[in-house]
Amino acid sequence: MKKRNKLQLLLFVFMSVMLVLAACSSSGSSGGGGSESGQKEGGAEDKGAGGKLVIGFSQVGAESEWRTANTESVKKAITDAGHELKFSDAQQKQENQIKAIRSFIAQKVDAIVFSPVVETGFETVLKEAKDAGIPVFLADRAVDIEDDSLWVTFLGSDFIEEGRKAANWLVEEMGDEEEVNIVELQGTVGSAPAIDRKEGFEEVLADHPNFKITKSQTGDFTRAKGKEVMEAFLKSDGDNIDVLYSHNDDMAIGAIQAIEEYGLKPGEDIKIIGVDAVKGAFEAMAAGKMNVTVECNPLFGPQLVELIEKHIAGEELEKRIAVEESIYTMDQAEELLPTRQY
Ligand code: AHR
To answer: How far is the CA of 228 from the centre of ligand 1 (A)?
Structure first.
């Protein structure tokens, strides 16, 4: 064979091999449902069950004892399971969360865990995550968005039920009194727990006209603001407050300080209802300064990671998964305090 013919033959063989290789690789990447199934091409679906995932976690902030326990629980569960964690603290600001989610999308994470500061205004960024084929898991707080294909599942508490539990306790405790004046410390404006805890509480009290919410203002879920707002309530209406309903324990603890400084006895002169069941609330109850706390369990990290892994492995998940919770009163505090994990 002439030298020129040999070269032509070699070139022909080389081109044929390249064509076969290209055909094989393209049929491989289109076989698993790709972006239609909400999975990233060449990303999470390739991980298979038990593979290492990169998980972005956009947390609300560090506003309360509850939040600190929740952050720790989720971070630990992700790393304990051998996955890589990318964490972002939004410092209670929605714009920070939107930035964090965009950065997770740019980094092509396998899943996003997202605890939204407020309920609305996240459509665009969640759509961007969906278009990138990255599944979003709502943890603790829900969003108020019609298109529920923008997230896989919501794992967290039933905040309306927490509000109902608080009100039911109060009705049981003071239902016979002629008039009960309540002041309310609300959580962060526009947040799911603030909206729902108010709704559940008011729903029960609607059947009991002797209970009146005389003042209601946000304390942004922090001790400092809880104290500040309670000081203002006391200043304008000090002798006319029978009950404080606080949307979390941290604000209640701040308010207890304000009540003591004002010269009244929290737990006696003013009944104190909190939500979360953090250690600080148990300490206050054991000291007789707080009457009741409705549990909101932040330790769902392991359950959350399990859900992410199940989804990545192709399992169908319920759209809403509730965490089981209880309610604790002053008389149980001393015994239970040593057993509290957060
Ligand atoms: O979303 C849960 C709430 O957020 C907790 O009750 C509160 O303490 C927190 O900051």
So the answer is: 19
**CATH 3.30.420.40, applies to 54-156+299-322:** no
What are the pocket residues of ligand 1 if the criterion is a CB atom closer than 6 Å to any ligand atom?
63-64, 66-67, 140-141, 193, 221, 248, 250, 275-276, 296
The rounded percent of the chain whose pLDDT value lies above 90 is 85
Q: Which architecture, in CATH terms, is 159-296?
A: 3-Layer(aba) Sandwich (3.40)
Would you say residue 226 has pLDDT above 70? yes
Residue 341 host element (H or E): none
Question: How high is the mean pLDDT of the chain?
Answer: 90
pTM here is: 0.86
Question: Cα of 135 to ligand 1 centre, how many Å?
Answer: 24
Domain locations in the chain as residue ranges: 54-156+299-322, 159-296
**For position 324, what pLDDT does the model report?**
86
**Would the CATH topology of 54-156+299-322 be identical to that of 159-296?**
yes
Distance from Cα 67 to the centre of ligand 1, integer Å:
6
Under 8 Å between Cβ of 142 and 156 = yes
Q: Which of 58, 59, 67 has most ligand 1 atoms within 8 Å of its beta carbon, as the pocket-test mutant?
A: 67
pLDDT higher than threshold 70 for residue 121:
yes
Confidence of residue 70 (pLDDT cuts 50, 70, 90): very high
Identify the burial level of 120 via C-beta atoms within 10 angstroms of its C-beta, where 0-12 means exposed, 13-18 middle and 19 or more buried.
Answer: exposed
Question: DSSP E strands: which ranges in the chain?
Answer: 54-59, 84-89, 111-114, 136-139, 153-156, 180-186, 211-218, 243-246, 271-276, 292-295, 320-322, 327-329
